[in-house]
Amino acid sequence: MMILTDEEKAMAAGDSGEAVAAAMETLMEYGRILGAERLVLTDNVAGANIFGKRHSKVLGSTDPKSLFSRFSLNSDKPLDVPMARAHSCQLIGPRDSKHYRLQGLSDADHAEASASEQYLASLGVSILNTCTPYQVGNNPRLGEHCAWMESSAVVYINSVLGARTNTEGRESSAAAMLTGRIPYAGLHITENRRATDLLVVDRPIETTSDWNVLGYYLGGVLGDSVPALSSSFPLSPDPVSLKQFGAAAASSGDVELYHIPGITAEAHTLEEAFGGRQPRQTVHFGEKEYTETVDALNATATGTDIDFVMIGCPHASLNQLRDVAALLEGRTISPDVALWVFTASALRDVAERSGWLETIERSGAKVLSDTCPAIGQFLPPGTRRFATDSAKQAHYLPAIAGVEGRFGSTAMCIEAAVKGRWSA
């Protein structure tokens, strides 16, 4: 049985209203499943609580309060939800507020999602609408207890920043938002953050594409472990490479935390990463593994014609937007190809002011925000085969949308968009 403070007991008893009591019920049940003995304070929550037509169709109502009560608090009764107790932000959502028609959404669909968004904002939630809140200002500190959804964001803040979160669901993150609590279990506990397995890198890892491939291999062979990396070659990833690496590892496996001694937040040495213990297992990544992993990422493709090129999973950084603009400068994409670049709306605004948006869209491409094809479940009409520079998207989109996928570097993807075919 979980030990609650007096304040937590009062919330559970309904002293702060039915919605908070429902949230506490969720956290206590969740904590029992995790084996948590208590809750821990959190003041940084990242959830996904914008609802659209898929949800309202199930509920039979477009009322934002009813939708939040049902899908975030598991209540069939519409509850009066108070302001968020913890600082909270909205992750990636179902639609682009500017280009929703490009997604195939109607004005009514857009209005429904907007009403849900406005309701969430009225609760004090920051509407960041991105899978990369750390790229637009939400950077939790070392050791800070958080309650975040979104696997690629979780592995980034755990590993690169040294914050502490498990991969939460909609209900647990909504409960944390209203109570400022989350079960003290999993990666909130120091001992559980020690490395368990060792990945020895036996080839140079130099490009962001290489880091995608390495991450996809790591997740596939080590699953839900806490890996540490070792290499006789210099490892010097930039933030984009770390973002792509973690997203790939969380897609092919269930990696929520990794250690690269001297680079990530919590370990300067391998001994520190493992806490003095020996690795449970050691795996190697060399030329053979690299080639096999690239082949696996391209396994669904049966031809070279490309209909759609998708860049920005997880959402593209400013550096990535700048690089895409440079690759497209003075060029025009094939009339048979749709090139869509996805980023946070805040970064799209910066790209517009910087002139990169104009350069990208002059080529015939589009820059979208707030969503992505996997989350929003949309593709350009007639898409049969797509290309992407994201191992995560190459992993998910063929299964979600029933299309073929090609994986390669950003430059390779831009070439495919211009030529209409994959020539790597």
From TrEMBL:
Q: Which Pfam families match?
A: AcnX
Q: Does the keyword Iron apply?
A: yes
Q: Does the keyword Glycosyltransferase apply?
A: no
Sorted alphabetically, the keyword list is: Iron, Lyase
At the top level, the lineage of the source is Bacteria
User: Where is the secretion signal located?
Assistant: none
Q: Where is the Phosphomevalonate dehydratase large subunit-like domain?
A: 2-415
Which protein, by its recorded name, is this? Aconitase X
